[in-house]
Amino acid sequence: MKLGNAMKKDHLPLFGVFASLVLFALSTARYPGGYDWANHSISTLFQPSALNGAENPARPLAVLAMFIFCVSMGVVFKSISRSG
User: What pTM, to 2 d.p., does this model score?
Assistant: First the structure.
């Protein structure tokens, strides 16, 4: 039973990164005026207003996506540091 729990914990960062990518995709879909991955920087999603001056409803999703991504990377680095 311990092996099954360890396996689930090992996959937690992967699920977190996947969830953050999905949230970033949803965030870009909600960005007013459209979001262009080739011409806009990721920080554009975190601004209170969009480039066209409209309020940015994508911001909360982008913040949540970044939070989940950072927590996931923290878990990865913690597990790496304990394995050595």
Answer: 0.84
